[in-house]
């Protein structure tokens, strides 16, 4: 995705030659936000999943390093393309959605240069909070057909699920574990500038 030619002075600004979002509150559009994850099965195959229930906002400050992010994830909305696996992901052995229905990310510090940066924040999953760095890129701005201004971002990080108390696994006869501890998280999101 790239910046479009329909930018408006109120929605974008140029900093050091780079097109960036203007200060304001940019709310996540859940219908155009993809929060996915993947781990290894049998230590080889990538198994992917995603959450469809994601809400939150990015608050862009005059100084980008004063910006903040807050996101809430409905853990029951996990989808992996296999209903049996989805039920297992929601079960007490893994996400334990009945006890921990939501996960959250709240930024604590932003480092930014050009169109990229690192957003450090507290990620809470399964009732456990750990600081996680998100490698973030601003992908561009678009004006939708209804006059809304959209800023598009992508973010990536890797976590150890056992750090969050999600420890279920099965030892393999030939060595190794059924499911990897390391989980890659990939986020592509559209945000809409609050009109007010």
TrEMBL record:
Composition bias type Low complexity, residue spans? 1-14
Where is the stretch described as Disordered?
A: 1-22
Q: One Pfam family of this protein, by short name? A: YceI
Which SUPFAM superfamilies would you find in this protein's record? YceI-like (SSF101874)
Query: Which residue range or ranges hold the Lipid/polyisoprenoid-binding YceI-like domain?
Result: 25-192
Q: Which family does it belong to?
A: Belongs to the UPF0312 family.
Q: What name goes with this protein?
A: YceI family protein
């Amino acid at each position: 995705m790239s910046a479009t030619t329909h930018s408006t002075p109120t929605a974008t600004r140029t900093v050091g030659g780079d097109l960036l979002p203007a200060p304001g509150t940019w709310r996540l559009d859940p219908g155009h936000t993809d929060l996915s994850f993947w781990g290894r099965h049998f230590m080889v195959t990538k198994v992917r999943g995603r959450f469809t229930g994601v809400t939150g906002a990015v608050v862009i400050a005059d100084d980008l390093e004063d910006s903040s992010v807050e996101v809430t994830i409905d853990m029951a909305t996990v989808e992996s393309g296999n209903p049996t696996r989805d039920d297992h992901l929601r079960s007490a052995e893994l996400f334990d959605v009945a006890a921990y229905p939501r996960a959250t990310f709240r930024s604590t510090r932003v480092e930014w240069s050009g169109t990229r940066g690192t957003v450090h924040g507290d990620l809470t999953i399964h009732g456990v909070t750990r600081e996680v760095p998100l490698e973030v890129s601003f992908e561009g701005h678009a004006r939708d057909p209804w006059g809304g201004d959209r800023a598009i971002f992508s973010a990536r990080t890797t976590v150890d699920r056992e750090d969050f108390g999600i420890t279920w696994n099965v030892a393999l006869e030939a060595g190794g574990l059924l499911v990897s501890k390391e989980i890659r998280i990939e986020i592509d999101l559209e945000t809409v500038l609050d009109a007010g």
